[in-house]
Amino acid sequence: MINAVIIDDEPKSVFTLNSFLRDYCPQVNITGIANDAAAAKTLIEKVNPQLVFLDIEMPMGSGFDLLQSLKSIHFEIIFITAYNQYAINAFRFSALDYLLKPLRITELKQAVAKAEQRILEKRSTHDYELMIRNMGEQNTGKLKIAFTDKGVQYLVPLDDIMYCLASANYTYVHTTGKIFISPRNLKEFEEMLPPDIFFRIHHGHIVNTNYITKLQKGRGGSVIMNDGKELEIAVRRKEEFMKKIKN
């Protein structure tokens, strides 16, 4: 069994989550519920849960305020939020799980299964520290994204990503220092990466406009990247891309 607590200030949300967990995630045992950050801190220190379902927006302190108030994080977290794309990207960059309200049973089961696996493998919780740092970063280029290569985790600033290439359900992420293979598809990267820096010039690749050194003419044309790589520009994306470059 996974001992868990629910931290949410909305009674209806707590009831729904509790019901879903009881009916669809029997491996989860709810040992306590709190409806604000202060009560949640006391509860966590008292019951020492393995998993926390954490609402972001709460009275008297957000879910992030709660995490920053703890001396250490020795539990898995599934974040619950109703909105805030910026916060969602912070979770994605750190490879953390989140659920959007209203809750969906399939997504809940998937998130719980992943949390259960992380608990069994006793993985490090430094992903949460990365998420907290990202939440406090105002410069989008300095946000960091987590990549794993041969069992080693790398924290890469977005500014260091030169371009991303699609390959089936994977994405090759070319950075200034290393190439990473990510299980995320290119659409996910398009949604995550800030549009003031990145542009999807083709269905197969996204570029960091700061690393473009030359534009090649043609029907759609192409770009030459800082490392010499030439990438085609899709005809249907050319006009929008040229406007972005001019701006």
Key attributes of the depicted protein:
8 helices; 5-stranded parallel sheet; alpha/beta; 32% strand; 5-stranded antiparallel sheet; 247 residues; 15 strands
Please outline what is shown here.
By secondary structure, the chain is of the alpha/beta class. The protein has helices at 11-24, 37-47, 63-69, 85-93, 105-121, 126-135, 186-192, 235-246; strands at residues 2-7, 28-34, 51-55, 76-81, 97-100, 144-149, 152-157, 161-167, 170-175, 179-182, 198-202, 205-208, 212-216, 222-225, 230-232.
Mean pLDDT, to the nearest integer, reads 88
- Count of discrete alpha- or pi-helical segments spanning 4 or more residues: 8
Summing up helix and strand content along with how strands pair, one would put the structural category as alpha/beta
Q: Can you list the strand order of the major beta sheet?
A: 2-1-3-4-5
- Provide the succession of SSEs: EHEHEHEHEHHEEEEEHEEEEEH
Distance between the termini: 55 Å
Main pleated-sheet profile: 5 strands, parallel
By DSSP, the count of extended strands is 15
Q: So what's the overall shape?
A: elongated
Which parts are unreliable, with pLDDT below 50 for 5 consecutive residues or more?
none
Strand proportion, as a percent range, falls in 25-35%
Assembly state of the chains shown: single chain
Helical coverage, percent range: 25-40%
